[in-house]
Amino acid sequence: MNALIQTALLGTEKKSLDVQSLPQPIQELLGDYAREDAEQQMLQAISLVTFFNAAGTMPPKLARPADENIISETQPVAPDDLLQLFGKFELVEYQIREALVSDWLQVLAKRNEIVSPELVVTLIQFGKNMTNHTRAQITDVIGNKGRWILQYDASLNYSAVTAEDQRWNEGTTADRKQIFTTWRKTDRVKAWKHLNEVWETEPIASKKMFLEIIGETLAADDIPSLEVLYQEEFAYRAKEKKTEKECRRILASMLLRVNTTKLYQHTTTQLQNYVVKERKGLLGLVTGKEPVSIRLPEAEDAFWNASLMEQQYGFEVKTYDIARFNTIIQFWMAHFLRYLPMSFWVQAFDGDYHRTLHYWLTHAAYQIKIEGAKVSIFLEALVDHVKQHQDSKTAFALITLADDGSRPELSPYMTLADFETYVSQNNLFGYEHVLQHGPYAAGLSWSPAFSEKVIATAFESAMKNQSSAQVGKLIAQHAHPASLQVLFAYNAKAHDTVGYHNWNTHIFQIAQPAFEIRAKIKHYTN
Amino acid sequence: MHSSVFDFSLSAFLCKIGLQTNRLCLTFTEAHTQSIAPNPAAFSAGKKLATKEQWQSFAQNERALWGAIKGSGTNPYLVAIDTQVLAYKCTCPSRQFPCKHSIALMLLHAQHAALFSKQDEPEWVQSWLDKRSIKEKTKTEEPERTEEEQEQLEKNREKTQLNRLAAVQAGADELERWLKDLVRMGLLDLPQKPRSDFDHMAARMVDAKAPGLAGWVRQFTRLNFEDQHAWQQEALYIISRLFLLVSAIRKHDSLTPEWQQTIKNLSGWSQSPKELLADAQAETIKDQWLVLGQETEKTDDDITIQRNWLIGSQSNRTALILNFGTRFSAIENTTVPGKVLEGELAFFPSVWPQRAAVKIQRRVLDAAESRPPCFDDWNRVHEHHVRQLAVYPWLNDPVVIVKSIRLIKDQNGWLACDAHQHYKPVVKSYDITRIMKWLVVSGNQPLDMAVVIRNQFVLPLGVFSPTTYTLL
Predict the structure, then answer these.
(1) Under 8 Å CB-to-CB from A374, ≥6 apart: which residues?
(2) What is the pLDDT of residue B17?
(3) pLDDT 10s digits, A409-460
(4) Can you give the pLDDT at residue B2?
(5) C-alpha–C-alpha distance, residues B206 and B300, integer Å
């Protein structure tokens, strides 16, 4: 057979076909064509040999026995009605799709049910580009067979979920940041265990990154480990790197947030020295409370001095924002406002929360003019305080100062009830930049009355051709499931109006599928 | 033909008087509806409309689904689906077929079948269904001609055929010379040959009115020269079949009429389903035809070819239904993969008749009454295949069902392995998603599998698990 291939490759001009080397039956058949020319004979030989081979080559046998392990399911399949929701996800805007998918997966996992075999592959493919968290949820509901098939296609990207430990040890900084953040939110013990294992070998930049993540999810059981780091590894040294000092500041900021730490107690004791209660004036006579002020020194003293601020707190001591702060002491004070719990200051102001906040925001000594308006030099510090302490009361107080919704970054820290009050009082139902920053982290939805009002406002805007798809998305994500009928009612009302196209395109078509899915998920979670 | 129409009318009549209470013949799933949709955009648009709130009304009976949906106009669009033979009607102006409203109605039924109340069909649905049955009856009837006209027509046809045959035979002579040059110079030159050489020869074959030969020549341009062993074998395979065909064309006049027709088909004579369905002599088989699978391919000429492989559950005959689409005419899809078409197929004449057209479609079913038999293992398939090759050497893409097949991952790809550990490699282009579907359905349990044999590879279409057929 090799002779035929050699002649075919080289050509009959260079190498004539050795007929004798071909199988006997083919030789006999070719004998009939002996009078033909060399190329004709070659073509005939190729044809005969090809079919001869095709007929005579039996299917090959495996060199090793195949894996005969049978995979079976141990969990029940979810009801059709719940599974059918999956088909609706692709109708939902992609920005809000993953959150809905995650909610749906959570319902399945809670019910200890899996998707039907027909859905397994589609679901795996669907989740391919979603976050690790969602992909981990998917692996929980695809059953034993689904998990078994993941090994066969590395491009599915599910290995990241199954080999989280490996990614922690070998992954990129971004990978490790993401994994550590997830652990901090789901299993702090595991997070500390893994961090302790690698801490000694981590570069200083990574250490700073991990401390910042801990700061975002700080809990009381973190404090002992943080105090050790603060007192030992990041204690002040004459020759230290800038990042080491920053690590000390991050550690100090965390320790100042918890009133049982030594640093908190030491610091608040020092700060008490600057709380001045004056003799009762007119205000005191009315309220029965003595006027309180925090007297910051004009020049450095035993507490407010660069070396102490740097060594104990890791604060910057050379440069600060001179446009905002008259003295560096005010700049350091901003840090304490940022890190210490509001309860400390409120206590100083005789337990009066509003008086405390009023003082920091309006005291003449702490005002600057920005674009003609008087602004407290501590406003940004207080906004940071809200974020660090998840302080919903201060968030509400600060945001109500700006009744035009110009502080939307504070909204996520409010309670949902406060948020709805704020929006209702200021009639901000049509302001998408306000609505989109609500306190939705826990998957909360608006109250039915609030939802109805937002839908009604969206309808009115659509009738004036002023609506935007963003509002449709917000309704899709946050409207109360019980308000679905309200949406349909407005949709019916919109028919045959000039604003129908606008309503349908920007609001109804966007909100309805997600809204419906959420309503059904809610039904299964109740 | 007549009996079918009679059955159809009788069924409707019995329905009307309430004596027949059959459930709906066909149940739609999202996957089936997707396979019928003309394109993904139409399916996606249909999905958006598949909520009950968007429909003003919807209902069903044993013959059809129908509904009314608000569109951009004043009046709602009226949508109906003939569920017995799978046909669609919608009053919307869309040129897509089925349109998004028809798709939406099928999806709505897939999700909320229980919400579809059983009603007498409204007048517009009834008249459409009745018109369809009349059209079905008359569509294959030839126009009446006088004897003279008929004689003249046949003379003209014969002359055209003779002229074309002469042109094709001249083309075959030229192609044989080209093949001889190829083997004289040697195949080692093939990787260096510019594609234009093959395109030029293919164009010459088109000029010779033999587009089939042109297609064979173009196969040389698809050789993968990266894989040295494979391309050499593949080139020899193309040459062998092409040479055999060229030799057969030259001997056309000495062949039997059946062979002559077969050779013409291979050379590129177009086969008209319309003529086939009108031909009283054509071979026809009544059966419950399970649609084993479907493959769609787009050619360089922007033509979409859809291949549907079927098997008769009683006759065990396999059939290939080809549909063609262009940019201007979408494929009209009435064969739903995984479903059973009860009716009569007409086969194009050939020494190994495979290509068929639907002559009578009585209804579409979810499952056949009996399961087609299958081969015990790859060795039995091989024996069968060799017998087929002996009759018809250009055998292409035959479909078989093989017992207890398991898909196994090998370093070079996936293998379809039988109970005796013999295997056939799965085509390289086979989508991993379909492999995964097999893995999920089977859990590594061997299942009877329908496959297309494509050269030395197989293209898995679906599995029986154990009695229901699941598409891969």
Answers:
(1) A367, A368
(2) 32
(3) 888 899 999 999 999 988 989 888 889 888 887 667 899 999 999 999 999 9
(4) 34
(5) 15
* Candidates B180, B440, B443; nearest CB to A121: B440
B471 contacts in chain A (CB < 8 Å):
none
Report strand pairing: B55-60 vs B117-118: parallel
Return the residue matching tokens 């919807």: B58
Task: Note whether B41 contacts A: Cβ–Cβ < 8 A.
Answer: no
DSSP character at residue A67: P
Q: Residue B399 above 70 pLDDT? A: yes
- Residue ranges in A309-447 assigned as alpha helix (H): 328-339, 342-348, 353-362, 379-389, 392-401, 416-425, 432-435
DSSP string covering B322-342: EEEE-SSS-------TTSEEE
Using CA atoms, how far residue A221 sits from A184, A199, A258, B174, B206, in Å, is 12, 18, 11, 88, 82
Q: Are B439 and A148 a contacting pair at CB < 8 A?
A: yes
Which residues of chain A from 64 to 93 reach within 8 Å of chain B, CB to CB?
65-73, 84, 87-88, 90-91
The pLDDT tens digits for B301-356 are: 788 889 999 999 999 999 999 988 887 777 777 788 999 999 999 999 999 999 99
Burial of A525 (0-12, 13-18, 19+ CB in 10 A): exposed
Q: Tens of pLDDT along A77-116?
A: 999 889 988 988 888 888 888 989 999 999 999 999 999 9
Whose structure tokens read 């922007």?
B302
CB–CB of B454/B427 below 8 Å? yes
In degrees, rounded to 5, the angle at the alpha carbon of residue A83 between the alpha carbons of residues A77 and A87 is 145
Is A68 within 8 Å of B444 when comparing Cβ atoms? yes
Instruction: For residue A152, give the nearest of B48, B70, B436 by CB distance.
Output: B436
- Name B115's Cβ contacts closer than 8 Å, sequence gap at least 6: B52, B58
Is the separation of the CB atoms in A260 and A344 below 8 Å?
no
Q: How far is Cα of residue B255 from the mean position of the Cα atoms in its chain?
A: 29
Check if A151 contacts B (Cβ < 8 Å): no
At residue B263, does pLDDT exceed 90?
A: yes
